Amino acid sequence: MSIVIRDVREHELDSILALNNAAGPTILPLDAARFRKFYDSAEYFRIAERDGTLAGFLVGFGSDADHDSSNFHWFRAHCDRFFYIDRIVVASRRRGGGVGRAFYADAQSYAELRYPLLTCEVFLEHDADPVRLFHGSFGFHEIGQHVMPESGIRASMMSKDMCSYPWVRDTYGEDLPDEPWLQRPRAPSAVANA
């Protein structure tokens, strides 16, 4: 039962949107247009498959992105440069099976070469202790709280230092070696121009 993490494919958007909107109160529902915007502009939009079946997805943006989330803008006001995990959703039947950890390992591997901080938020209203414990065990800590004006939901704003980033920046700057494992997941501008 291996977990495969790969870039999302356009024909999968309806299934991923349905997974998002069935996730429960810890994930805000989206409409198809908003979800399409993620596909067109997210720096990182990957799915997890287990046994050939959709098990979850993760969407992330770099700090320079044109992203309209109030949580993203909170991080932009409080942090210089960061990679923001906008949402992670794991299918209910797959929770507790390592999919979340696999996603965070993949996202961290991507972020640590490009950003000094990995950031995310956890909603505090809906029995958040298991989710906060998960993030704490992965090295995140709260750097503040934010009430989302569009929903009134209070979120714990969390970050994690990317320990490898200073060495990578000092050694390579913005010019990472041309290796397949270092390529950006689905470059949004390449998709938009295709």
Automatic annotation (TrEMBL):
EC id: 2.3.1.-
Key words, A-Z: Acyltransferase, Transferase
Tell me where in this chain the N-acetyltransferase domain is found: 3-163
Enzyme's top EC category: transferase
Coiled coil spans? none
Alphabetically, the GO molecular function entries are:
acyltransferase activity
Q: Which SUPFAM superfamilies match?
A: Acyl-CoA N-acyltransferases (Nat) (SSF55729)
Checking Pfam families in the record gives:
Acetyltransf_1
- Name used for this protein in its record: GNAT family N-acetyltransferase
Which species does the entry assign this protein to?
A: Luteimonas rhizosphaericola
Q: What is the lineage of its organism?
A: Bacteria, Pseudomonadati, Pseudomonadota, Gammaproteobacteria, Lysobacterales
